[in-house]
Design goal:
The chain is α+β, with helices and mostly antiparallel strands. The chain has 10 helices and 8 strands.
């Protein structure tokens, strides 16, 4: 599997990284620790970090100490936990400063969110997750508390399925095979539903994902740029606001049209 930005170094990567003399493993492990923090988990202890990364506790202690000394992590006052430090925040701010195109995209997403009183998000893949770059919400108290920076599982969500649907067939098969081998995709019923959604994507222009247990329906579509980079957009909310017929007849096609409108905006935004 090709390693996307922000992905964890696992056993399947060891052969390539061990033979790559330019690859600095210690640096990669430090970055992996920083990527454990997100909008939902802003404070973590070293034991939690070790569990998330699979690194040995002494290694985590040394790396966290170094990250604290360089300002990328800082202790949480009164708690035995760490949080992102000023250096990490400054780096994130510098990255966002180059994302002017997102401000052009925002009102386009917000218009759909307001129209249906649901949530619309734009994301990009990092490892086995889709990370929200933008999230717009309509006036509904029933929506999940997700935000920019939230990580959505690649293999268990509409927005993740949309990403897979926009991969080359051989790339998609490799991602699915790696996920199955690592235990991230073991539910045969879910796998069958996902493959059906991927197969129907070319004709529909979107994937549909329903979660009856939570009464939530979602559609999502992908945006491919000429350099191979891919973005994904999703629209989801309570089934009371987004019943299945509405998703297929109106919201899905609307989202597919939105991706066609966003493609040139995001392409030009790479040069802003």
């Amino acid at each position: 599997m090709s390693r996307g930005p922000g992905s964890k170094i696992d056993e399947s990567d060891k052969t390539s990284t061990d033979s790559d003399r330019q690859f600095v493993t210690a640096l990669a492990r430090g970055l992996e620790i920083l990527q454990c923090f997100d909008a939902e988990e802003r404070m973590l202890g070293t034991t939690e970090i070790a569990q998330k990364t699979g690194l040995a506790q002494p290694t985590v202690w040394r790396l966290c100490y170094t990250l604290q000394k360089t300002g990328f992590l800082s202790p949480v006052p009164g708690k035995d936990k760490l949080q992102l430090g000023t250096a990490a925040i400054a780096l994130g701010a510098a990255a966002l400063a180059g994302q002017d195109a997102l401000e052009v995209v925002r009102p386009m997403l917000q218009a759909i969110a307001d129209r249906y009183q649901v949530a619309v998000a734009l994301g990009r893949r990092e490892g086995d997750s889709i990370v929200y770059l933008l999230r717009c919400q309509g006036n509904s108290p029933l929506l999940m508390n997700l935000r920019v920076g939230s990580r959505i599982p690649l293999f268990h969500s509409a927005i993740g399925w949309a990403y897979l649907a926009n991969c080359r067939p051989e790339e998609c098969e490799q991602l699915l095979a790696d996920a199955a081998a690592s235990g991230k995709l073991t539910d045969e019923a879910e796998l069958k539903t996902m493959k059906q959604a991927l197969a129907r994507y070319p004709a529909r222009g979107f994937v549909y994902h329903e979660r009856p247990k939570y009464q939530i329906n979602t559609v999502a579509a992908g945006i491919k740029l000429p350099d191979g980079e891919r973005f994904v957009v999703s629209c989801g909310g309570p089934t009371s606001l987004l019943p299945t017929p509405l998703m297929f007849e109106e919201v899905g096609p609307l989202l597919s049209q939105l991706t066609r409108e966003l493609q040139p905006v995001l392409l030009l935004g790479k040069d802003l």
